[in-house]
Amino acid sequence: MTKSQDALASLRALTGVGRAPPAHHGAGGSPPAPVSETRETTVPLTDFTKLPDYGVLRRMRAVFGGDSALPNLYFIPRSGTMGARIETPEGSKVLFSGYDYLGLSRDPRVVAATKDALDTYGTHAGAARMVGGETRLHGELEESLARLTGHEAAVVGVSGYAINVSVISYLLGKNDLLVHDSMMHNSGVMGGVQSGARRLAFPHNDYVALERILTENRPRAERAMILVEGAYSMDGDLPDLPRLIALRDKHQCWLMVDEAHSYGVLGTTGRGLAEHWGLDPRLVDISMGTLSKSLASCGGFIAGSQVLVDLLRTFAPGILMYSTGISPANAAAARAAVEILLVEPERVARLRRNSAAAASSAATTSSGKRAVIWLINGPFQCQ
Ligand SMILES: Cc1ncc(COP(=O)(O)O)c(C=O)c1O
Question: Does domain 106-342 fall into CATH 3.40.640.10?
Answer without folding.
Answer: yes
